[in-house]
Amino acid sequence: MTTLPILIAGAGIGGLTAAIALARRGIPVILAEKRTRFDEAGAGIQVSPNAGRVLESLDLGLALRRTAIRPEALEIGHWRGGAPLLAMPFAPPVEGATPSRSLRRADLHQLLLDSARTLPNIRWLIGRGLVDAHETEAGIAAVLAGESGQTETVDAMALIGADGLWSRARSLIGDVREPGFTGWEAWRSLIPAEGLPEALRRPVVALHLGRARHAVHYPVASGSEINLVLVRAAAEARPGWSREGDASQLNELAASAGAGLRELIGRAPNWRIWSLYDRPPALMAKGRIALLGDAAHPILPFLAQGAALAIEDAAVLSHELATRLAREGTGAVPAALADYARARGERAMRVQQASRKNGEAYHLGRPWSYARDFAMRRLGPDGMRRRHAWIYDWRAPG
Ligand SMILES: Cc1cc2nc3c(=O)[nH]c(=O)nc-3n(C[C@H](O)[C@H](O)[C@H](O)COP(=O)(O)OP(=O)(O)OC[C@H]3O[C@@H](n4cnc5c(N)ncnc54)[C@H](O)[C@@H]3O)c2cc1C
Asked: Which residues are 153's β-sheet partners?
């Protein structure tokens, strides 16, 4: 009898990492992706050590080193400029230790794609979106639809929904609560570093806090570009995922910013806007369907942990599946997925809540911002590091 594959719906960061982790453990995978081409342009991403360790365990350390920057510190200051509130040096480079990294989102996606393409036990179904699934005697039958509406049915031993915020897999396990608009939108741009003053090119993650807005910037692409993200309050979600920025709103943001941030805003080409949505965490597995990444627990970007948790999910899922399959065979798939859900649920919820709380603190106006600033100064770099240790010190099982 041939072993049925695991079907993963969604070839984003989470789905690709899961495919690689499973395939490397000898488990056949079908990777179905709704899009026909990947467009990850116009944004950077921070990969914290909890996620970096997983990627290194998949032999992606070298590829990461080729393009990623190792920021030396996190610097927190005000939107309007002035002295920093806090500067927290990241751990100095130590042989064998995983650093924090920043890189272009497109580069991270590409290195995952490159790795997945070398694995012969991954079958690709590009341009096929998950639309339906039902359990069968042998496993699960999933219906995929192509762009022109033609459908095909794929038999698998399990379905992993890595299909992002608007997950179809999530509704297939009975969770039909829609994501809710948070009242925030993120403006993102990649700025050529050449010609920028040295102070704006330093390898640091710089965070600027203001009333109802904040900005983050850090170098990517081996230092040749600066990723800039502005988050601002917005009255309503604008349809579409990625749109051009609006000049009058941009001028208003720049006018209130300190000199360095204003210079970056002025030089930024090709703005893309993301309306930010939130959604309560889902039940992460039911029967032979499991969810991972944003499909299970979208995380607001105020802690830079959404992709990191998707990568962690992939590591735990592949461990639980490989362990149970080796010990008990394919009948144990639902139990393996339940183990995965138990292992991940609480952490995902905690990170989701911590990120929401960060957002509240970042965007305070006076007088509450005085209390926040006082607390931050008192916390200091060591206190800040200790506060985040539970996130960054996480290690995958096995
Ligand atoms: C402004 C901003 C900054 C961020 N910065 C960071 C950061 O610094 N660090 C960090 O860790 N995270 C960050 N995040 C969060 C991170 O981008 C997401 O959490 C992460 O991309 C989630 O990955 P995913 O694979 O779960 O989902 P996605 O990246 O959304 O991928 C889902 C994939 O599924 C496909 N798909 C959708 N529906 C179907 C279907 N029905 N069938 C098949 N395929 C389907 C999609 O086309 C897509 O390719 C940030 C987010 C924002 C908005």
From this structure: 143
Q: What is the pLDDT of residues 355-385, one digit of tens each?
A: 999 999 999 999 999 999 999 999 999 999 9
Nearest CA to ligand 1 atom 26: 293
Is residue 293 within 8 Å of residue 287, measured between CB atoms?
A: no
Interval 74-116: pLDDT, tens? 999 999 998 889 999 987 767 778 999 999 999 999 999 999 9
Known active-site residue 340: no
294 CB near ligand 1 (under 6 Å) = yes
| Domains of the chain, earliest start first | 6-178+278-392 (3.50.50.60)
Which numbered atom of ligand 1 lies nearest the CA of 186? 1
Q: Which letter does DSSP use for residue 294 in this model? A: G
**pLDDT, greater one: 319 or 96:** 319
pTM for this predicted structure? 0.97
Candidates 179, 115, 124; CA nearest to 9 is 124
Tell me the CA–centroid distance for residue 165 and ligand 1, in Å. 7
Tokens for 315?
């590591």
